[in-house]
Amino acid sequence: MSTIDRAAHSSAPPARDGARSVAALPLAIGAGLGVANVYYSQPVLHLVQQAFDVRPEIAGWLPTGTQLGYVAGLLLLAPLGDIIDRRRLIAAKALLLALALVASALAPGLPALIAAGIVVGLLGSVGQDFVPLAVQLAPEARRGRVVGTVMAGFLIGILCSRTLGGLVAQWLGWRAVFALAAALMALTSLAAWRGLPRVPPAVTGRYTELLRGLGQLMRQHHTLRVAMTTQALLASSLGAFWSTLALALAAPPFDLGAGPAGLFGLAGAAGALAAPLFGQFADRSGPRLAIRTGCALVIAAFALMLAAPTSLIAIGCGAALFDLGVMASMISHQTLIHGLDAAARSRLNGLIVTAAMVGVACGTALGTWSFAQFGWRGVCTVGVLAGASALARSLADRSRT
Fold it and tell me: With contact defined as beta carbons under 8 Å apart, do 181 and 40 qualify?
C-alpha cells in the first residue's frame, strides 16, 4: 500500500467548527465562476473568426485548446487539493486564472489567443476544487445537501457562461467577455483568501504517488473503464453542439448574433438542472438503466434537430434534452463508481470528469470540422453517432459486474 493510500485510511484532523459553518452557496458560486471560464469562448467564436479572418475549423482550435487545457488541469492540478490546503490552492489558481484571462482579452492574434486559452483551461480546473472542499467542510447530516448545491452551481456556471458570454459579446465585443471574466476571478481569489477557512489536507504523501494511483485505479476497476469510455462518448456531443451553435446561428437562414446564441444556454441549463432527478431513478432501477436512458435522450435530441435543422424551437428543445441526458448519465456514473473504493472517491471522480472533458475536447474538434464540411446537419449527425456509440458501449457491458 502506497503512502497516499495509507494516509487515506488514517483519520485526517477534523475541521474546526467555524470551518464547518461555511455556507454552501458561496462554494457553489465559486465553482460556477471557476468552470465558466472554460466555456466563454464558445458563444463568441464567430466574432473571433471574423476579427482574425480565419476559417471556422481554424477558429475552432480556440475552444478545443481550452478544453484540452482543462483536461490537463484536472489530471495535473486538481489532485493537489488532496495534499495542499485548498484555500491557498483556490486563491492562487483563481489569481493566475485572472491573469490568463487578461492575456486573452489583449491577444494580438489567434495563436496568442489559443495559447492563453490553453492556460485558461488549465487553471479553470479551480471550479472542481470547490467540490471536495464542500465534502470536507460539510457536517455529516447536511453533506448531501451541501454537495448537491455546489454541483448545481457548477452546472449553472457551465451552461449560463454561454448566455453571459454571448450577451456581453453582442454589446461590447469578444474581448470584453475575457476582461469581465478576469475581474470576476480576481474577486473570487480575494473572496477565497479572506472567506474560506484553512482545512488540513485530506492525505499525506508525494504528488507523484498521487498521480501513479490514478493509473492503478483504472487498471483495477473494469467498471471504471467502461464508465469513462461511455461518458466521454456522450460528452463529445456537448463539445460538438456548443462549439458550433454560434457559427450556425450566425449563418443563413438564421443570421443571428452572439446574444441569441448565448440564450440557448438557458435551455441547456434547464435540462441539466433536472438531471439530479435521475439519482432517484438510479437508486430505484439501478445506475446502468439510468445511464442507458441518458444515452437514449441524447440520440433523440440530435435526431430531432437533424430532422428539423432550420427550426429554432427544435434546437432549443434539443439543447434541453441532450444536456439532460449527458448530465443524468454523469450523475449515474458517479453513483456507480463511488462504490468501487471508498478511500479513493475524489480520485475516481476526477477520472470520470477527466474522461468527460476529453470527450468534450474531441467533440469540439470533430464538431467544428463537421460544420465546416457539412453544415449544421453534420454537427447533428455527430451527436446522434456519439449517443449511439455510448449506448452500444454500455449495453455491451451488461453481463459484467
Answer: yes
The contacts of residue 94 (CB under 8 Å, 6+ apart) are: 34, 123, 126, 185, 186, 188, 189, 192
pLDDT tens track for 117-161:
999 999 998 988 887 777 677 665 665 566 667 777 887 888 788
Cell representation of residue 387: 449517443
Q: Residue 162: which residues within 8 A CB-CB, separation 6 or more?
A: 39, 42, 43, 242, 261, 262, 264, 265, 268
pLDDT band with cut points at 50, 70 and 90 for residue 346: low
Q: At what angle do helices 24-36 and 86-105 cross, to 10 degrees?
A: 40
Entry field: residues in the chain: 401
So where are the chain's domains?
Answer: 12-205, 209-401
Cβ-contact 248, 379 below 8 angstroms:
yes
Listed range (49-53, 225-229, 295-299) with the worst mean pLDDT: 49-53
Q: In this structure, are residues 136 and 202 in contact, taking their beta carbons and an 8 Å threshold?
A: yes
Q: 78, 350 in Cβ contact below 8 A?
A: yes
Instruction: Provide the grid cell at 311.
Output: 427550426
Residue with cell 470536507: 136
Superfamily, domain 12-205: MFS general substrate transporter like domains (1.20.1250.20)
Overall fold of domain 209-401: Growth Hormone; Chain: A; (1.20.1250)
Tally of CB atoms within 10 A around 246: 29
Q: Mapping DSSP to helix (H, G, I), strand (E, B) and coil, where does residue 150 land?
A: helix
- pLDDT per residue as tens digits for the range 305-331: 999 998 999 999 998 898 888 888 887
Each residue's pLDDT tens digit, 50-106: 899 888 778 888 988 998 898 888 888 877 877 788 889 999 999 999 999 999 999
CA-closest candidate to residue 133, choices 89, 99, 187: 89
Half-sphere exposure of 84 (CA within 13 A, CB side): 16
Residue 388 burial (CB < 10 Å; 0-12/13-18/19+)? middle
Segment 281-305 shows an average pLDDT of 87
- Distance (Å, rounded) from C-alpha 55 to C-alpha 262? 21
Backbone angles phi, psi at 60, to 5 degrees: -65, -15
* 12-205 and 209-401 in the same fold: yes
